[in-house]
Design a protein that fits this description.
Layout lengths: L8 H13 L16 H13 L3 E5 L2 H11 L7 E5 L4 H9 L3 E5 L9 H7 L4 E4 L11 H11 L4 E3 L7 E2 L2 E2 L6 E5 L12 E5 L2 H10 L27 H11 L2 H19 L6 E2 L12 E5 L3 H13 L5 E2 L12 H4 L29 H7 L2 E5 L6 H18 L1
Parallel strand pairs: 2-3, 2-4, 5-8
Antiparallel strand pairs: 1-9, 6-7, 8-9, 10-11, 11-13, 12-13
Helix pairs in contact: 1-8, 2-8, 3-4, 3-7, 9-13, 10-13
Bound molecules: pyridoxal-5'-phosphate (PLP).
């Protein structure tokens, strides 16, 4: 879980600078703030690290998705392809944009299956959203090939792989726009917060306007700004940015140590008969956010989890997870929107066939996730803790497999 294990002096120093001059908002107050612009500093650090033209701080990873979709002009009548295995925010952002989420299967990388993406493209598809799940990369070569073939933009949802790479290039820099989160579970955290990146001038401008009530941010005062489009308030605050900045500076160290911890366990268990470790497309670019492995059947996975728990090792059976697998999201399956009108599902502007999906529409994903266990990897893991996990897996394998 990296970031939150490392909160201390660095974060305090950044926060102190903000508190000393008292300007907690990112815009305006130029005289009083004495050159301190933490959101801007965070954006500059992110841009430089990713090697992209633009970064925009926002209030959360969910907000980053919503703002990115607004920048792309996603709206009623559109379809957006997302994976069946993701955090619910990916799909919520599509629904908040009034578009229809079209759910693609995952493959044994636990990321979106490019074959199914291609199968699900229709005349209404306006966006493809690969999500880099549990620290490792979606197949960006194939997804970008599909994007170019059909001329459909790509948004990389990257909160779980911030700092990771694919064939030497940072994840988040392949598509048209990418989103990240600094929530409390993320590799770099400010409690809450998010950021989006892009190389596209137009997308950046629209995102910047939309995230702050349409403000252009170029007049002498906020009151004189123009408003080219309607927007909302997703502005990041200076306190959030101060902590995120201190954390983000440690991102390579967090990834390196977590990756080492993860692969010590992974390499020790991968030859055990009956255990299949996750297929990772580029191990060097894995940030070690979590370790996942599959068992031969669902029954064995359930048993394996129970027995591991008795040994003091907690895991998550991904097929049963109510946070990350669309088949378990009753509220979405039943279209329980906050309003009485069930847009976008009942939207008359939508002419496609994907407004209804059912729990058993994702057999390939279910077959994988129902057999797959996942455990979190920490920055601080002693050799004896790692050894304990490995030995527990070995003992349970002997009993169960
Ligand atoms: C893949 C993915 N997308 C989006 C989000 C949303 O980020 P936040 O919690 O900052 O809104 C998360 C958070 O867990 C995530 O894992």
């Amino acid at each position: 879980m990296g970031g939150r294990e490392l909160i201390g002096e660095d974060e305090l120093k950044e926060l102190k600078e903000v508190i000393e001059h008292g300007i907690l908002m990112r815009y305006g107050f130029h005289e009083q703030r004495k050159g301190v612009y933490k959101v801007k500093e965070l954006e500059d650090a992110f841009k430089e690290y990713m090697g992209v033209k633009y970064a925009l701080g926002v209030t959360s990873g969910t907000a980053a998705l919503r703002v990115a979709m607004a920048a792309l002009g996603i709206g009623a009548g559109d379809e957006v392809i997302v994976p069946s295995f993701t955090f619910v925010a990916t799909i919520e952002a599509v629904i908040e944009s009034n578009a229809i989420p079209v759910i693609a299967e995952i493959d044994d990388t636990l990321n979106i299956d490019p074959d199914d993406v291609e199968r699900k493209i229709t005349e209404y598809t306006k966006l493809i959203v690969p999500v880099h799940m549990i620290g490792t990369q979606a197949d960006m070569d194939r997804i970008m090939a599909i994007s170019h073939k059909y001329n459909i933009p790509v948004l990389e949802d990257t909160p779980q792989a911030c700092g990771g790479s694919y064939k030497g290039r940072k994840v988040g820099t392949f598509g048209d726009i990418a989103t990240f989160s600094f929530d409390f579970y993320k590799p770099a955290t400010s409690g809450e917060g998010g950021i989006l990146i892009t190389n596209d001038d137009r997308l950046y401008k629209r995102a910047e306007w939309y995230h702050d009530h349409g403000h252009t941010h170029d007049a002498p005062t906020r009151a004189l700004d123009e408003h080219p489009i309607l927007g909302f308030n997703y502005r990041m605050g200076e306190l959030q940015a101060a902590v995120a900045l201190a954390q983000f500076r440690k991102i390579d160290e967090i990834s390196r140590v977590q990756r080492e911890n993860k692969y010590k366990i992974r390499d020790a268990i991968k030859e055990i008969e009956g255990i299949t470790v996750r297929r990772v497309l580029d191990e060097e670019g894995d940030i070690g956010y979590g370790l996942t492995f599959s068992l031969p059947t669902e029954e064995k996975a359930v048993k394996f989890q129970e027995e591991l728990q008795k040994e003091g090792v907690s895991t998550d059976l991904l097929g049963k997870n109510k946070w990350h697998f669309v088949a378990n999201w009753e509220h979405i399956l039943q279209h329980r929107t906050a309003s009485k009108v069930h847009c976008p599902f009942d939207c008359p502007l939508y002419k496609g066939k994907y407004s209804r999906f059912r729990r058993d529409d994702f057999p390939q994903s279910s077959a994988i996730l129902n057999r797959t266990l996942s455990m979190g990897i920490n920055y601080y893991m002693t050799d004896s803790e790692i050894e304990h996990i490995v030995e527990a897996v070995r003992r349970v394998a002997e009993r169960v497999l």
